[in-house]
TrEMBL record, chains A, F:
It holds the Pfam family ABC_tran. InterPro entries: AAA+_ATPase (IPR003593), ABC_transporter-like_ATP-bd (IPR003439), ABC_transporter-like_CS (IPR017871), ABC_transptr_haem_export_CcmA (IPR005895), P-loop_NTPase (IPR027417). GO terms for biological process: cytochrome complex assembly. Gene3D superfamilies: P-loop containing nucleotide triphosphate hydrolases. This is Heme exporter protein A. PANTHER family: ABC TRANSPORTER I FAMILY MEMBER 1. GO terms for molecular function: ATP binding; ATP hydrolysis activity; transmembrane transporter activity. Keywords: ATP-binding, Cytochrome c-type biogenesis, Membrane, Nucleotide-binding, Translocase, Transport.
TrEMBL record, chain B:
It comes from Rheinheimera pacifica. Belongs to the CcmC/CycZ/HelC family. This is Heme exporter protein C. Coiled coil: none annotated. Keywords: Cell inner membrane, Cell membrane, Cytochrome c-type biogenesis, Membrane, Transmembrane, Transmembrane helix, Transport. It is a multi-pass membrane protein. The keyword Membrane applies.
UniProtKB/TrEMBL annotation, chain C:
One of its GO terms (cellular component) is plasma membrane. GO terms for biological process: cytochrome c biosynthetic process; cytochrome complex assembly; heme transport. It comes from Rheinheimera pacifica. Belongs to the CcmD/CycX/HelD family. The chain crosses the membrane at residues 12-36. Required for the export of heme to the periplasm for the biogenesis of c-type cytochromes. NCBIfam families: cytochro_ccmD. This is Heme exporter protein D.
TrEMBL record, chains D, E:
This is Heme exporter protein B. Signal peptide: none annotated. It is a multi-pass membrane protein. The chain crosses the membrane at residues 21-40, 46-67, 98-120, 126-153, 160-181, 193-216. GO terms for molecular function: heme transmembrane transporter activity. It comes from Rheinheimera pacifica. Keywords: Cell inner membrane, Cell membrane, Cytochrome c-type biogenesis, Membrane, Transmembrane, Transmembrane helix, Transport. GO terms for biological process: cytochrome c biosynthetic process; cytochrome complex assembly.
């Protein structure tokens, strides 16, 4: 694995010194009887779930089942119509800042400004995460973007844009990642690479919640699936 | 009719043609401009009414005349671009617009600098002045529009369309402004009575006008060459040129 | 030469400010346009060769990867 | 030739469903108008003098800004693209848009004119001239604004670019309309100005729809 | 607290890359200004009288319409969403946007004021008052417009909705600014008006950034 | 098949009376050495292809390979940078109106106005195609939209919106269909139904050009694939 991800090892040591705040196996996030109503439609009701450190939760379901809506609730972007969210057994409302600092959310949209280059976009996200600036050339090369670092992102293909967007995960220090369809627009090799990287995050004690329409090929113990039914 | 033009519409040919013409045109323009201006500035007697301030005429009138001439050149290019889909014409619309805008700005600035001593004010809302200002806005509109699209082709085509629409409107604007002004203005402000120019003053003026005309062509050559390279950068001939 | 002296030439019969303002600003604008057009041409050629070099690098990198 | 009917029906239905699209410009017109007494001062005479110009500038800006959204929805959801591919119905579509635009922004301004006359202290003679010029001028405003909207539909630069392009073209209209109102306030005849406005309107009516369809075609490709 | 630096650098870089975003509003300002002599008539005295109001209305409209696009790109591509999710940096982001907005639209208007004074025949005393009011007033304009832009970022109704929301809030500014210029033209003191404008600016400076961040949060959810 | 598509038979008879203009097996559309350049990237060069009546051409390739760009060229929405297009052996420029009348193009975007209901959208498309208005309730029911005909389309899920958009095919009288990723957002049963319907169009003498990232499950003789390579 070292051969494939040289960059990861040079970026990761940080984590060794700063282990995640919640130890492996401990309860990280807990949702209690959530319900979500969008335009008079009940998407889900009485939904409860738990995510522990070192666990990956895949939210599955048909188009329109409410996966993205659920992820936005969990990321604190929307407030549930009913039910509540607990982070480390405390209501998220009380520890909002801690929770937000320990969370990395990447949604349907890439978070990439089309007029800025890949390097500039990454520098912006480093600043927003209060991390020191660093040389991202090697990171981008690992992601298959060698030679494309300094042209505006609008000239990149959809898949390449998504790679730039996911590059944030490589330097994120958050324990919980919430990813809405991270594999969109990626080709098979990129998907495999990303899953390897997920595995690494999980074994270090991180946690991931994601949705995807493609089956996960990774093998891991703490891999759970939540099936949302489509109701009209 | 456009058969004989066809080989000249090939970007590569145009590129090299412009490259060959450019030094000559630029040299001739500079020479004539210096000749006309120095003659006009130093070797003609002053106007009996306006004194030496009238020497501004050697920039003002060439720039004013060529600001309109440049617009018609741009509109013709735009028309060709739209009707016959000639790419080179399309690119020359964008290449020529900044030249016209600069000429218009020169006409405005020299006119203002002339107006202060003659009329006692930098600016009045006179017909000619106003329509020249609107002409500047039209140029700037074409430039702004061409840059507003992520796709360069679309920008060029849409700007051509605007240039053509503008040329239809230009006489209407000119006529209406003329009419508007004469209604409101009494004879309060000096009219643009054509000064009966002495031939000794006329020659340098004519030379300067010619200089502005040739300078327009020279600048067009430079800018069109860039436009051709930008739009044809995927072609082997451009790559070969950039490679070495 | 119509003027008697250089001083008189620069003064332009009292209209020096306006005359030289017009001539100065006009020449500056024309020179700026000419320089900028030429600069764009050079600049683009430079960008293009950089782009071609980058494409070459990219190809090499991809060949290495596979 | 495709008939206009179904296209117009669709536009009107959309207007009925999205009331903000025609209420907002009208409100904008009124607010901009009421800024003038605040900014320039409340003297009735001054207001009467500047009224013609001010009314027309406000009308111009509100029609212009309303036009910005005209093709946006149909461009984004692919309707324009598919109509361009099938060629025939495009002109009918454009004509329906034009008509709907005038009905939803030009006509309300005409209907609002009594209120405006009150606000700006306009006398009876100028008021009649105002109604007449609005009746002749707002269709022309619509035509030019729709052209601007079609030119910039894929540009994504907002209303300000549209305004830049089209405001210079509005100037003749502004001059003639305010001249007519001024002439009326001085009890002079103003047939001449109205005739010129009518001529401009007919001229634009002949040319603009074609220009709009080709602008849409360019923007789609 | 996240430092402002990198955020501001990003905005300035974007402005350098998309020149239209600050050139267009300036042009729009000039065009709207030149509409007034055309509509109202070219008499220098009349123009001088209406100049304060007209300058401020044009400034208002151009800042307003420029603000429309401020959050659009970052909203569409999900930057706002992700910043809201991570809470901390949102305020720095908003402050950077505010500053960049003023630098790119307010400041150019101040720099353009000599030209405007020429065009509208403004005398020296009013000119100084104009520069001072613009210096104090344009930041306030920016603050309010940014607030409007944040409120309407997900509404997709174009600049006209924004204008409707924000124009009423501008009215105090308009009144004091044009009163100051008028006082100056009559050689009266106008410290009072400037002091009020300063007070309004400080008040807005304290409140608006918070309001903007919460408006963004609401729009994202 | 009858049982599955009752509606088709009630809509189709029209075609029996008005057979397509080009007989089966004849050359319908021909592209000669097309090339397409977008933002200084050559997407494809010297591309030639032929489509006969009764043939289905699937354009395949990675994201960003230029599939959509090709389809837009073929639909006459863009002009090729080089090469030309022949319809019935005549340059498309000369017979543009005939060609456009015999073509039905549905792109990435649905062509559905979100504020209008499904019925209103269909009525609009009928008018645009110069077809008489008709009762579309039965058609929408076949497409699984029973009961959703009269609510604004923005309240429909992505897949349902796509069904509304594809409903146009059911009453189209054009011989050539150009469809850009028609299966996007559709679930498996809808995809199967659509493929059945394609088969019917093809056997009647129609022709289809489409792109899709999913493999086609239909079995048909005249099914050709064009692979576009991704080049940077
Ligand atoms: C901003 C101020 C001014 C502007 C925009 C302006 C504009 C123009 C334009 C557009 C023309 C060309 C007319 C044509 O070829 O049909 C022109 C010509 C001319 N202008 Fe000006 N002008 C300005 C101020 C002045 C002043 C102050 C004077 C002198 C008192 C002046 C004297 C002339 C003369 C003598 C001509 C040549 C007349 C002719 O060819 O018939 N201009 N100006
Ligand atoms: N912004 C919104 N406003 C109102 N309703 C919405 C909004 N977003 C989604 N919905 C509704 O909520 C339902 C669920 O949407 P959601 O995006 O959560 O589905 P999903 O499971 O993520 O689907 P997909 O697989 O397409 O991403 C949809 O049917 C839609 O009608
Ligand atoms: N409107 C446009 N302007 C400029 N370049 C474009 C435009 N649309 C696409 N491109 C470029 O052309 C390339 C091919 O795009 P196209 O949409 O044809 O790909 P595609 O094969 O359809 O991909 P997908 O599978 O994602 O639909 C892209 O890499 C993109 O960079
Ligand atoms: Mg989703
Ligand atoms: Mg595609």
């Amino acid at each position: 694995m070292r051969a494939i991800f040289p960059i990861v090892d040079s970026q990761r040591p940080v984590i060794k010194h700063q282990p995640f705040s919640v130890p492996v196996g401990q309860l990280l996030l807990q949702a209690q009887s959530l319900s979500c109503i969008r335009q008079d439609r009940v998407l889900f009701e009485q939904l409860s779930l738990q995510v522990h450190a070192g666990e990956l939760l895949q939210v599955a379901g048909k188009n329109g089942a409410g996966k993205s809506s659920l992820l936005r609730l969990l990321a604190g972007l929307a407030t549930p119509d009913e039910g509540q969210l607990l982070y480390c057994r405390q209501p998220v409302a009380d520890v909002a800042t801690d929770y937000a600092a320990n969370l990395c959310y990447i949604g349907h949209h890439s978070g990439i400004h089309e007029q800025l280059t890949a390097l500039e976009n990454l520098a912006f996200w480093r600043a927003a995460a209060e991390l020191p600036q660093a040389d991202d050339l090697a990171l981008l090369a690992t992601l298959g973007l060698a030679g494309l670092e300094d042209i505006p992102c609008r000239m990149l293909s959809a898949g390449q844009q998504r790679r730039v967007s996911l590059a944030r995960l490589w330097f994120s220090r958050s324990q919980l990642w919430i990813l809405d369809e991270p594999f969109t627009a990626l080709d098979q090799s990129a998907i495999a690479m990303l899953q390897q990287f997920f595995l690494q995050h999980l074994t270090c004690g991180g946690a991931i919640i994601l949705t995807t329409h493609q089956p996960l090929s990774m093998v891991y113990d703490g891999l759970n699936t939540l099936e949302l039914a489509y109701r009209w | 009719m456009f058969k004989w033009l066809h080989p000249y519409a090939k970007p590569e040919t145009v590129y090299h043609l412009c490259g060959r013409l450019m030094p000559w045109l630029m040299g001739a323009a500079l020479l004539l401009l210096l000749l006309g201006n120095i003659w006009g500035l130093a070797f003609t007697p002053p106007d009996y009414q306006q004194g030496d301030s009238y020497r501004i005429i050697h920039l003002h009138v060439p720039a004013a005349i060529m600001s309109m001439g440049t617009y018609s050149a741009m509109a013709i290019a735009a028309f060709i671009a739209l009707v016959w889909q000639v790419k080179v014409a399309q690119w020359s619309v964008l290449a020529i617009a900044p030249i016209g805008a600069v000429y218009t700005a020169i006409a405005l600035i020299t006119g203002m600098a002339w107006g202060k001593p003659m009329w006692g004010t930098w600016w009045v809302w006179d017909a000619r002045l106003t329509s020249e200002l609107i002409l500047l806005f039209l140029y700037l509109g074409v430039i702004a529009l061409s840059g507003a699209f992520s796709d360069r082709q679309t920008g060029a085509k849409v700007a051509s369309l605007l240039a053509v629409v503008g040329v239809i409107n230009l006489p209407i604007i000119h006529f209406s402004v003329e009419w508007w002004n004469t209604l409101h203005q009494g004879a309060s402000i000096t009219k643009f009575a054509k000064p009966s120019i002495d031939p000794s003053m006329l020659w340098p003026l004519l030379i300067s006008i010619l200089a502005f005309k040739i300078l327009m062509l020279a600048l067009l050559c430079v800018r069109l060459r860039t436009a051709i390279l930008v739009n044809e950068q995927h072609r082997p001939w451009v790559k070969a040129m950039a490679g070495d | 030469m119509y003027f008697q002296s250089w001083a008189e030439f620069w003064a332009m019969g009292g209209y020096g400010l306006f005359v030289w303002l017009s001539f100065g600003s006009s020449y500056v604008m024309l020179a700026a346009l000419a320089w900028y057009s030429q600069y764009q041409h050079k600049q683009f050629k430079r960008q293009l060769s950089a782009k071609l070099a980058r494409e070459k690098r990219l190809q090499q990198y991809q060949e290495q990867a596979h | 030739m495709v008939t206009l009917g179904p296209f117009l029906k669709r536009e009107l239905r959309l207007l009925a469903r999205q009331k903000a699209d025609w209420l907002n410009p009208v409100l904008f017109f009124l607010i901009v108008l009421s800024l003038f007494p605040l900014g320039v001062g409340p003297e009735p005479n001054l207001l009467r003098i500047i009224a013609p110009g001010v009314i027309w500038i406000a009308a111009l800006l509100s029609v212009l800004l309303a036009a910005e959204r005209l093709f946006k929805d149909d461009y984004r959801n692919g309707v324009v693209e598919q109509l361009v591919a099938s060629r025939q119905p495009l002109l009918a579509f454009v004509l329906a848009k034009l008509l709907a635009n005038w009905l939803s922004t030009g006509l309300p301004l005409v209907l609002l004119s009594p209120l405006v006359a009150l606000l700006l202290n306009v006398d009876m003679a100028s008021f009649i001239a105002m109604v007449l010029t609005l009746l002749l001028g707002t269709p022309l405003l619509s035509l030019l604004s729709v052209l601007g909207a079609a030119l910039t539909v894929s540009a994504d630069k907002g209303g300000i670019l549209l305004a830049l392009l089209i405001l210079p073209l509005y100037i003749p209209l502004l001059i003639f309309a305010s001249a007519a109102m001024e002439a009326a306030s001085m009890a002079l005849p103003y047939h001449g100005q109205l005739a010129v406005m009518l001529a401009m309107l007919l001229f634009a009516l002949a040319l603009v729809p074609v220009a709009v369809t080709s602008a849409l075609k360019i923007n789609v490709s």
